[in-house]
Structure formats: structure tokens, C-alpha cells
Amino acid sequence: MAAETFSIQVCYASDAVQFLRELQVPVGTTLEQAIALSGVLQEVPGLDLSQLQTGIYAKKKPLDTVLRAHDRIELYRPLIADPKNARRRRKNPAPV
């Protein structure tokens, strides 16, 4: 009897790369296992899973989270600028 599987997606985006892969994974697969199966760490040079935040549908989740059918795993890059400071600068530009 074959193991039951379901569909999930793994996605990552940066200025240079857009990665989206749909996978069939067995029941009980963790977020970390699905990322490894997707091949994103091999296809995107320099990605270090220990330095990235991960989540499912924009909600941060730890790597040991067990996946459910149709989950979309997202890898989040560190912020380059604080969004609050960026909004303040746009609202109150420096005098010339």
C-alpha cells in the first residue's frame, strides 16, 4: 500500500531569483524536510536556512512544523531597512 501524499508549495523571492515549486510530500513531512526536497537550497546559491525565517502563508513557523495539504512554505529574507523608519523618512524628508 502506497503512503498517502498531498500537495504543497515552496517559494522564495529576492531581487535576482524567484523560486516556486509544487511538491507531493508524504503525510508527516516537516517544513524543513519539504524545503530540502524542493531543491531551493541547491538552486539558490548562498541561501542559509539557519539565517532565514520560515512561514506558511505569511505566518512565521518553526522548521519542525508538520505540514498540511496545500500549505505554501515561504522563506523570508532579512529586512534591509526598518519599514517604520522608511515610512518616517518618506513622510518627513530631510531638508535640502
Task: Report the β-strand fraction as a percent range.
Answer: 25-35%
Give the overall form.
elongated
Order of helices and strands: EEHHEEEH
Task: From the alpha carbons, calculate the radius of gyration and give it in angstroms.
Answer: 17 Å
Mean pLDDT: 88
- The tally of helices reads 3
The end-to-end span amounts to 72 Å
Strand order of the largest sheet: 2-1-5-3-4
Give the second-level CATH assignment, the architecture.
Answer: Roll
Low-confidence stretches: none
At the fold tier of CATH, the topology name is Ubiquitin-like (UB roll)
Number of strands: 5
Strand-pairing-aware structural class: alpha+beta
Task: Write a brief caption for the model.
This protein is of the alpha+beta class. The protein contains 3 helices and 5 strands. It has a 5-stranded mixed sheet, covered by helices on one side.
Features:
5 strands; alpha+beta; 96 residues; five-stranded mixed beta sheet; Ubiquitin-like (UB roll)
Task: Describe the protein.
- The protein is an alpha+beta fold.
- It has a single domain, classed as Ubiquitin-like (UB roll), CATH 3.10.20.30.
- Helices cover 22% and strands 30% of the residues.
- The protein has three helices and five strands; from the N terminus they run E-E-H-H-E-E-E-H.
- It has helices spanning 31-38, 40-43, 83-91, and strands at 5-13, 18-26, 53-56, 59-60, 72-76.
- The protein has a five-stranded mixed sheet with strand order 2-1-5-3-4, with helices on one face.
- The model has no long low-confidence stretch (mean pLDDT 88).
